[in-house]
Write a structure and sequence with these properties.
Number of helices: 16
Helix content: 55-70%
Distance between the termini: 109 Å
Oligomer: single chain
Number of strands: 2
Structural class: mainly alpha
Strand content: under 5%
Order of helices and strands: HHHEEHHHHHHHHHHHHH
Strand order of the largest sheet: 1-2
Largest sheet: 2 strands, antiparallel
Radius of gyration: 36 Å
Mean pLDDT: 81
Low-confidence stretches: 255-313
């Protein structure tokens, strides 16, 4: 008779545990469908999606480059073209328009897009205002319940796990110690053993439910999947120039010449072709070793030995 009692109790507990797991799966799957449907229905502006991935300035620079407003050379220097200097021509979107105005403020000096992104306060302010304005239009996206902030529910779950482990151990000991007699008791023992095996893998089933219904960052997944049209239209060389200019945010690419305190220095040098060259990095002033020190001279001096050292020797 003990086997019958064990079979009934283990079967009841197993049904209760897996029933709770099934209800949790159904609830999480419903919430996940709602979240994914809400995200899929969003009408995200391309620049807003790029801003969520911190690529709004990169997309704006790509649009200015494709539109012929600026030219970015191999060193990452952004220089205005004739179209970019025309005050009557401005991109329709406020973000590339703000970037173009920032480049115009430095004209005729070359400037890196990365420096504008990090150090140009007016551009940073306008970019942040655009991001805040677009974020305010987003609907509230529900989050997948994770149990955080529910201490009472967490305590009840811990107590349930402890009671379940205690029941499992007791039922397993009784099942091993009680010897079944007859077909009915053997069948009941098999049912009890199967129920205990199912309870042993209950935590694995719970983890599988969490993994299959996970919905960590659906909005971020969508923005990462949607590349801005201007970025997609760049060729390899243009993409390299834009990325190099974006990555250079440590210094302002302009003149390093200091005027006198009176400001009377001749400004004719501003009109020559010196400006584009001001952007390039200065080579490190390293003096090459003389040929006689590297290879020896005609008198048989060993390599790496100066004439003065030879005389001293």
């Amino acid at each position: 008779m003990l086997q019958l009692v064990l079979a009934a109790s283990v079967f009841t507990v197993a049904v209760a545990v897996y029933g709770a797991i099934g209800l949790r799966w159904r609830r999480r799957a419903r919430i996940r469908r709602e979240i994914l449907g809400l995200v899929a229905a969003l009408d995200l502006e391309p620049y807003h999606a790029a801003a969520m991935e911190s690529r709004a300035t990169e997309a704006a620079a790509a649009e200015l480059l494709l539109g012929g407003y600026v030219d970015i050379d191999g060193e990452g220097a952004a220089l205005l073209t004739e179209a970019g200097r025309d005050p009557g021509r401005t991109p329709a979107h406020p973000l590339p328009a703000a970037l173009l105005e920032a480049v115009r403020r430095h004209d005729p000096e070359p400037v890196s897009i990365g420096w504008i992104e990090w150090c140009d306060e007016e551009y940073v302010e306008r970019r942040s205002a655009y991001r805040s304005e677009r974020d305010a239009l987003l609907p509230e996206i529900p989050r997948m319940p994770d149990g955080e902030g529910r201490q009472l529910l967490a305590c009840c779950a811990c107590m349930g796990v402890i009671l379940l482990l205690s029941f499992w151990c007791l039922a397993a000991v009784l099942l091993v110690m009680a010897r079944p007699h007859g077909v009915l008791e053997w069948a009941a023992a098999a049912v009890a053993a199967a129920g205990l095996t199912a309870l042993w893998f209950a935590d694995d089933a719970h983890q599988a439910v969490r993994a299959r219904t996970a919905c960590e960052d659906p909005l971020g997944d969508r923005t990462r999947a949607e590349l801005h049209p201007s970025l997609a239209a760049l060729d390899e060389q243009q993409r390299f120039h834009v990325l190099r200019s974006i990555g250079d945010h440590s210094r302002w690419r302009g003149t390093d010449r200091v005027l006198s305190e009176g400001g009377d220095e001749d400004d004719d040098w501003l009109d020559d072709d010196w400006w584009p060259d001001a952007f390039h990095y200065r080579a490190t002033d390293q003096k090459e070793e003389p040929d006689d020190e590297l290879h020896g001279d005609a008198r048989g001096t060993p390599p790496g030995t100066s004439p003065s050292r030879q005389a001293t020797a």
